[in-house]
Amino acid sequence: MANPKIKSSAQTVKKSNATAGRKPMAKSLYSRVDLEEIFRRFSIQRPEPKGELEHVNPFTLVVAVALSAQATDAGVNKATRALFAVADTPQKMLDLGEERIREYIKTIGLYRNKAKNVMALSEKLITDFGGEVPRTREELITLPGVGRKTANVVLSMAFGQATMAVDTHIFRIANRLLLAPGKTPDEVEHRLMQIIPDQYLYHAHHWLILHGRYCCKARKPECERCVIADLCRSPEKTWDIPAPLVELPAQIIGAEAAG
Ligand code: SF4
Predict the structure, then answer these.
(1) What is the pTM of this model?
(2) Of 104, 138, 157, at which residue does a domain stop?
(3) Nearest C-alpha neighbor of 163 from the set 172, 154, 174
(4) Among 209, 213, 236, 237, residue to substitute to test ligand 1 (most atoms within 8 Å of Cβ)
């Protein structure tokens, strides 16, 4: 009689074929099919999603993201346009000096501290990294004013790596939709990285931010405008007919961002 504890090789092969190429699934209310469909719809709405922080190279992106803590992208852009026109490298930033940097960014919250950090991170880039922005998270977070979220944004936007920088919008959506609930940004980041289908991972960060900024808003989600209203499992949802699935005009995204 065959030992029931020993799986036949046919069973083992069948199981490994079924899971081949898939990541282990974190616990989620959403099935794989639902997750595929949610991100497929986001990809049709915004085929080439972009971050809204203006920058001209990896260095100015690091500075812009570091300045954006507790500030809006539109507010940061207003200040950095003039700053980056005169200082787009670590050396030029050092030459400008802390006092003049402060003048450029004084409309941004916590600007005194941020000006100090911009000076310190420029100095460190020159002494430790030859004036270049490093390409690993471990190195990026050694820069003053650069935490895990900033590092993830830089890795994604400057170097094309699939990362999940959990900002206020992503944290809210992951919890509100019960998509990847977590008490901390790190927890949410880890869960999202596990459940988002691989082919959508690179753009997922921007799709979630833009969905949160323009549709699933903090105070009151606009469910009647939502393309995933039928799939959403949020207890806060007020409507369950999905909005028409069309590509959004870029100018709408830009116009709302400036507001
Ligand atoms: S249906 Fe409403 S709560 Fe759900 S994702 Fe859309 S806007 Fe957010």
Answers:
(1) 0.78
(2) 157
(3) 154
(4) 237
